[in-house]
Each structure stands twice: as structure tokens, then as C-alpha cells.
Amino acid sequence: MKRKRSSNRVLTGENATPPKWRSLFIASFVLLFFAVISYRALDLQAFNRDRAFDVGKRQHNGAVTLPAQRGRILDRDKKELAVSVDVKSIYAHPSDVREPEKVAQILSKKLNVSPKRVLNRVSSNKSFVWLKRLADPKVIASLQSLNLEGIGYLQESKRVYPNGHLLGQVIGFTNIDSRGIEGIEHLYDNFLTGTPQKITLVRDAKGRGIMSVSDKAWEFDRRKTSGADVVLTIDSRIQHIVERELEKGVEEMAAEKGMALLLNPETGEVLAMASYPFLDPNDFIGHPKETMRSLPIWYAYEPGSTIKVFLAAAALEEGKVNLNSVFDCENGRRVIGSEVIKDTSLHNNLTVAEIIEVSSNVCASKIGELLGKEKYYYYLDKFGFGEKTGIDLPGESKGIFTSMNKWGDIELATISFGQGISVTTIQMASALSAIANGGDLMKPYIVKRIASADGEVLQENKPRMISRIMSYDTAREVTDIMKRVVENGTGQKAAIPGIAVAGKTGTAQIPDLSNGGYHSGSYIASFIGFAPADAPRMALIVVVKSPKKKLHGGAVAAPIFRSIAEKSLFVLGVTPSQETLSVKAMPDLRGMDAREILKWSEKEGVRVKVKGNGYVKNQMPLPGEPIKRGMICSVEMDRKT
Questions:
Q1: Could you report the per-residue pLDDT of 217-227, keeping only the tens digit for each?
Q2: Can you tell me the distance from the alpha carbon of 53 to that of 342, in angstroms, rounded to the nearest whole number?
């Protein structure tokens, strides 16, 4: 009898069927999954619709913030000194770059960057990375022709200084994000910057960049958010002259550096300010920190004999002396305590006017002694020495002016001829202007106004008198003394035929700040002056550090003063009196624009043939050559002059 096989056996292999619990589990999981998805869809579309739109927007849009169009820096006649131009930058959406190694190789060659660095960027897990900010237009054009996936281009603003080194240290410069780093760019950064612009990059469903905000829309927004314009008191024509003549003079004397400052003594407006060696803000990387600074407001030096005009002003104002008061100069040698004061030329009895004319240290010390340290200190302080002028530029120094309580007999004597005190060029120009304008100390300034993109004046500077230092009569007496310095004394090389010049030379040893005392054979040569002496239109300071070929202010700085003053006065409309000239001489037209050339030609009856645009680079006849009415003058103009 056969035994029946059990009916509940488990089959394996091809005929096996899954247990019921497993099927139930899978079915339940699928139902639960669809339930969650359905709920999520319902939640996003019905209950949290706004949030869903935000999520979608973030997935399809990428944002980047770009600096606004930076405002311009202009001279007094609205000539552009600093502007922003449109330049494209290169970026990447790494997720869109399909062949990172290949793309990195291409970009590294075009951008001159290591392949590894580029690969790290295009392989990044970020949604947006910069590859090259403010790239060369030729590089942009070359890359765009390759249509590299994941690589895009955005238009940004790049800061450009169209005149190269002209006024470089004063203007300053910006970083790659158009933030001011030095000079006017730094001090007025908040006005110039404007409102940064946030733009959106649109992507497709896979996250690939398919478009950016249109150039037209970007231009529209940028105009509305652009920064304000800063208008300076600077006259670019005069600035060209000052820089050219300063460079020539410093190089001829094989000097270490030079500085010059020219201002309107009636108002305190700075018309030109130069530091040599120059700085081109378009190419500032790698330059020493000192080259980036504006020397006329930062560098302090011992003024030497130029201080004597302020000593004379104080003594005359106090009634201690008059122009004919006589002092014994002791044949150029005076002993004070253990110290000996010497003159370079030997004199006995000299009047006050003659003392300044020949620049006697011995007699200057005697005037200081007669005036007394209290009064002398009072007037030097009143002229502004030892304090910042408050000019609207960063980095101003106040110089060194020790307390009167530390003055002994020898300190009073040496400060009477400009040693033991240090000043800045801007302090000296401000103090000199008080003599030139009849006794008023004016606050110097270099920013005329700040105006928004639509022309609204946001800030404006106007002439401001700080204090009344001396009477008009005293100022005229000091002016007469300074005229004698140029006519007969140490400043004869500053004389301009047909124009009266008031001036004073200065020569001082350079202090050794490390070891004390003074450096042997190292001098500061300077000249201060204003013209025309009887109705001044300009006050000018020229300072040259460590000249090698000649040493004294009268031989080094005075000729530079003359070259600058003569040409600058012509720009200001001041020409030599023809009664004082035997022959009419051709002026130096270089650095002048077409308007000034035509104005001059009409006045003098000289026909002008003009070639090119911008400023005069070359001319015929040459400066100083005789001219007459009806002749033809040829000028060659260049925007880079």
C-alpha cells in the first residue's frame, strides 16, 4: 500500500511562488509611497503654494551681486580723471561643465592660470564660481567662439584712469571689486560706490544656465544705482605742467624725489599737486607704499630758510622791527652757548630786508631773539605749523613742532632759520597764501563738489577763512622783501621776465632719525613763492629731496618754480607786461587744450595750425623764440600728453 504525499510541501525552483506576506508588504510599501507623494504634491500645490514657487525659483535661478557703476572723478572743468568702463568677467556653473579636464586645459591657456587651479573651480560643488574677473576683451571673444558648456560671461565695471599717472597719488585707486583703497577713491568711497546690483541667472530644468539678465535691463538698473561724481578743484592743464616740469627738474638734479603744490591763495583751492616718482593708478601693484602716498600732504621736512619770511612777518606785525632795522651779522659767525651758527656768505650790518634777501642765519637768530620765543611760537602756531590743515585728503601729517617749553636759546635760534621744526608742503602753501592774500589764513581744499548721477549737489566746498594772521600792511612789507629775494638775492633763478615774483629759497640738511644729528651731504632744497607779486593768482611750493648735482634751493628748486609758474600763469590768463619786454617771446603751449590755444591766438594775432586732439605735445616756434602778429604757429596735440 502506497503512502500519500503531503500536500503542504514547499516548492522551490521555477515552480516556486512567493509567500503571501511578502506580496502584502510590497503592495503596502508602494501604496504608502504613492500616498506620501500625493500628500506632498497636494501640500505644495494647495497648502504651501508660495513656498513651492520659491523652491522652484531657487532651482531655476542663480543670483550674483555685482558692484554698481562707480561715480566719476573730474577736474574743475569736468575733464575725466577716473571713470568706469564695461568689461566682461568669466564664470562657471560647475554642474554644467561636462568635460572638466578638457575645459580646464582650454581655460588655463587662455587665462594664463594653472590647469589644476581651473580644474578645482570647474569641478566645484558650488552652483556659481568666478574664473576671471574683468578679463581681457580679446580673451573673452576667443572663449565665446568656443561655446564651452557651463561657462558664462557677465558685464562688470572696471576702474580706468585715462590720464595715466596724472594726479595719481591724489586720486588713488580701487580693488577688483571697485572699492576705494587710496586717495580720493578711498576717502569718498561711500559717495562714489553707489548701490550694488544683484542680478539673476536663469537656468533650465537640469540646472544649466540658459540666459542672464539682458544688457539693456542691466544698463537701466545700473544708471539708477550709479555712484556720485566727485569734482575736484584741480586744473588738469596746470597739473600736466607741474608734473612735467617737476620730473624734468628732479631728473636733472639726480634727486631722490620731488613734490610740488600750486593753489589759489585767495580761496585755498588746490590747482595742482604732484609727487615724483609718479604713480599710475592703472598699474599700482608692486609699487612701494611710499610711492602710493601724496608727498605734499604726508612728507614732513625741515623748511630751512623759507621759514624766515614768517619770522619777518611776526617781527614786523609785533612792531619789533621795520624794514630798515639794522642787525650785526658778525661776519657770518655767532656763538650761542656751546653751539656756533654760521652763514654761507659773510656780512656785517644788514637791514631786515637785506637779511632775508641774502638769507643770513646769524641775523635771523637775532630777530628771533628780539621777538622772543613766546611771540615766535604764537605766530608759527597761528600760521598753522604743527597742526593738520584739514585738507580733504587722507594721510595728512602735522609735521613736528616741539612745545615752547622745550625751547632754549639754541632752539629759538635754529628754529629762526628753519631747523628743529618740520613742516609739510601743504602747511607751507597755506601759510604762504596768508602773506599773498593780505593776511588771511584760508583752509585748503581739493574737492569742489559732489553731485549725484542726476546732477543733485550732495556736498559742496567753498572758500573758508580760518583766521586773520597779520595786517594788510605787514603782508605787503613781507611781499616787498620777497620780491627783493627774487630780483637781487638768492632766488634770482625764479625770476620771470615781465612778471613780478615774490619768493624765498630754502636749504636744510636732512635729519638722521636713527642716530641723531644730520646726514652729511644730504639736503632738502626748496623754493616758495607767489605771482604776480602784487596781485597773486597762484602760490607755489617746490621741494626736492637729496639732489646730487647741486644742493641749494636757489639752484635746484627755483628754476623748477620758474618753469611751472611761467606756464601756469599763462593758463590762468596772466601774460608778461609787454612794456618790460624788448621782444615778444613765444610761450610754452605744451599741456594746453584747443580752447586755450585759440583764445591765445586771437589775443596775440597769431594764426595756429592744429594737428590732432587733446593737449599740445609739440609746437613751432619753440618756447622763447620771437614771434610777431600774423605769423603761423604749428601745434601737435595728443590725448596722452
A1: 444 445 567 89
A2: 89
